[in-house]
Amino acid sequence: xxxxxxxxxxxxxxxxxxxxxxxxxxxxxxxxxxxxxxxxxxxxxxxxxxxxxxxxxxxxxxxxxxxxxxxxxxxxxxxxxxxxxxxxxxxxxxxxxxxxxxxxxxxxxxxxxxxxxxxxxxxxxxxxxxxxxxxxxxxxxxxxxxxxxxxxxxxxxxxxxxxxxxxxxxxxxxxxxxxxxxxxxx
Length: 186
Ligand SMILES: CC(C)(COP(=O)(O)OP(=O)(O)OC[C@H]1O[C@@H](n2cnc3c(N)ncnc32)[C@H](O)[C@@H]1OP(=O)(O)O)[C@@H](O)C(=O)NCCC(=O)NCCS
Description:
InterPro entries: Acyl_CoA_acyltransferase (IPR016181), GNAT_dom (IPR000182), N-acetyltransferase (IPR051531)
Oligomer: single chain
Order of helices and strands: EEHHHEEEHEHEEH
Pfam families: Acetyltransf_3
Helix content: 25-40%
Radius of gyration: 16 Å
Protein name: Ribosomal-protein-serine acetyltransferase
Number of helices: 6
Bound molecules: coenzyme A
Shape: globular
Strand content: 25-35%
Number of strands: 8
CATH architecture: 3-Layer(aba) Sandwich
CATH class: Alpha Beta
Organism: Paenibacillus silvae
Number of domains: 1
């Protein structure tokens, strides 16, 4: 299989695969949407930003300590990019990873992210053999909090003014799930 189309995980409706050049337009469309960017680090996202980002991702490999790797979420029916999920392999403890995720607005509210992250966590704890997955959510980001809690992730902390975003210090919740908890879930 070509590296750029490599599938890392699959679910009923989705493929979790590498990014490729055909994804740039769809990726740009949702990243440039202010509602999608509201609780994220970026703003005023340009097509050039999307091209640079996708090119860099295509040259990277997953699970390198101290780096993020972005996985494309595509519909299995037609390989259309609908969002992405990312893993940050922590530099200080590479057996633990941090999760990030984004879905294009037109594909929200249909359970796609839940489905994608279930497949991703199976891959992270199965194929990558990780010990713990953590995620941070802006305390105002109700949709993201619902995604994390629907996965069964535990709120482990309320971190005050933990993150500088768009000129403002942001409070975040830290969520986590252990390998033993994920593997033992009913
Ligand atoms: C966070 C984000 C991915 C959540 O998207 P989402 O569509 O709400 O999440 P899912 O795809 O898992 O869909 C869940 C919703 O679909 C509904 N749903 C409909 N059909 C469903 C199905 N077949 N299976 C499961 N859920 C279904 C669920 O009830 C749920 O709605 P609710 O939260 O109102 O109860 C999205 O808001 C986003 O991309 N935001 C911008 C980026 C961002 O802030 N990322 C978080 C950074 S940590």
